[in-house]
Design brief:
By secondary structure, the chain is of the alpha+beta class. It has helices spanning about 15-30, 30-55, 60-65, 115-144; strands at about 65-70, 80-85, 90-100, 105-110. The chain has 2 domains: about 10-55, no CATH class; about 65-144, no CATH class. Helix content is about 50%, strand content about 20%.
Length: about 140
């Protein structure tokens, strides 16, 4: 006797072939307007995701909002304007003591806000004096 159940055909939606046919039918039914709308949605969603990441990822936000800029104020020291995580801008003045291998030993000071050239010159003189004192300590330890 023969089996009374009908064999599955590709058009009745059973099996993988039915899924493929349904997907092909969906793709055939798309119009140019549908494709353009989906493209616009993708174009909007990608930047929106990065903005969402920026708002929720504190480390990324700190990195983006932080900066440092070395400036030439006509003083013999390094003068750096910087800000961490979008906080108030600060100014730092550094003077070199010596180089040990790949390390550069510095002495420095920082202040809140922007320094004038006169303030930077005063801070630089102080840092040079301090660097000389630290350098003499290094020299004394090397002689021992």
């Amino acid at each position: 006797m023969s089996d009374p159940r009908p064999s599955p055909s590709p058009t009745n939606g059973n099996g993988r072939l039915g899924v493929v046919e349904r997907l092909a039918a969906i793709l055939r039914s798309l119009t140019l307007q549908n494709v353009l709308v989906m493209g616009i949605l993708v174009a909007i969603s990608i930047p929106s995701y990065f903005v969402w990441q920026l708002l929720h990822d504190t480390e990324l936000r700190k990195e983006i909002l932080s900066y440092a800029k070395e400036t030439d104020m006509g003083v013999p020291c390094q003068v750096v304007f910087f800000s961490f995580s979008g906080q108030h801008e600060r100014t730092a003045v550094f003077s070199g003591v010596r180089t040990i291998g790949n390390w550069e030993v510095l002495v420095g000071t920082r202040v809140y806000g922007m320094m004038t050239q006169k303030e930077a010159m005063e801070a630089c003189k102080l840092m040079i004096e301090t660097a000389e004192k630290v350098r003499s300590v290094f020299d004394a330890k090397e002689k021992q």
